[in-house]
Amino acid sequence: MKISVGVFFGGKSTEHEISCISANQVIHALNAEKYDVLPIYISKENEFFIGDELFDLANYSSFLKDPASRLEKVAIYKDGNTVRIKPVKGMFRKEQKIDVAFPVVHGTNVEDGSLAGFLQMLDIPYTSCDVLGGALGQDKAAMKDIFRAQGIPMVDYFVIYSSDFEENFDTYFAKAKKIGFPLIAKPANLGSSIGIEVIKTQKEFKEKVAECLRYDFKVVVEHMIKGLKEVNISVIGSDDEAKYSAIEEVTNGFLDFDKKYQPKGSKGAKTGAAKSAAKGASKGMASTIRKVPADLKKKQKEEIEKIALKVFRVLNSFGCVRIDFMIDKETDKVYCNEINTIPGSLAFYLWKEEGVSFDAECDELIQNALNRYARRSRKTYSFDTNILDNYAKK
Question: Mean pLDDT over residues 127-151, rounded?
Fold first, then answer.
């Protein structure tokens, strides 16, 4: 009997369209002989939809603004030990249920632990980080504080809060001068390089931090390495076992939003992502210009692998993540930058270099989810008590 897999994607996030691209890759990678695949689209209003249209990325431009025009709105609920899907209106051709949830979401309101909390309440196996892991992976400020406490190497940084930026501007500016320009400023809770600003001079500081604060209540400001080499590694696993992939070197410089997701020759800025997603023109992070394996010294490679496994554990990670590193070419020093708890394209291009096909990667993630669910099911989460008897009417 096939396992029913619900692939969740979209959501109220600035990375909504990128999630659609990544999820469509997963939908077609899942082995149809083993799984009944059910795409579950989360609209920008956080409503759930299903429909055959979701199997083809070329259809997406027709419903992004009005999902109900082409898709069926549904409710997801628990019925005994089964998670079912119920139409808000109309009738399904057959009963729908989900055995395993496969989140392929990016950004705030979904990847940050929000969707994990919903799936945890449904008491269903799911392939991604739990609430804590998702939240820590999304909040760069909290993440870096943990890195510092755990002795994980990173560049100098400080955090700016929107609530007191104007009032304490001089204090923040003094911290910036102490680190030294140029600087990188980025919203604490966004991904896909959205909202990132390069601050080259003191004069630009206030204006560019203010621009970052348009996207979030917190901004991380950090030292910018001039002679920079960017390398990334993926980790797959759970709290008791994890393994790392090949290491890639990004060779086309700093990856802003358009470089990551816009097809070559495409015009338009961030709004173009929806167009490229709908046309199937973008392959997401899989299309990035990269060198695999990265050109690294043996000591650097071993250090990155060791740090990656540590980061995976201390951030309470699960499933497939990508951990990004920076290397100062002048000093050869390695710095950990951040974790992506559900990376674009699920970093399948890194596992491919290790001889792991995309469908085998998806298989492993599903099996890990089932194993974690079985382990958790053996834990005690409630007790028989008579506390409420004290409030009963006598």
Answer: 97
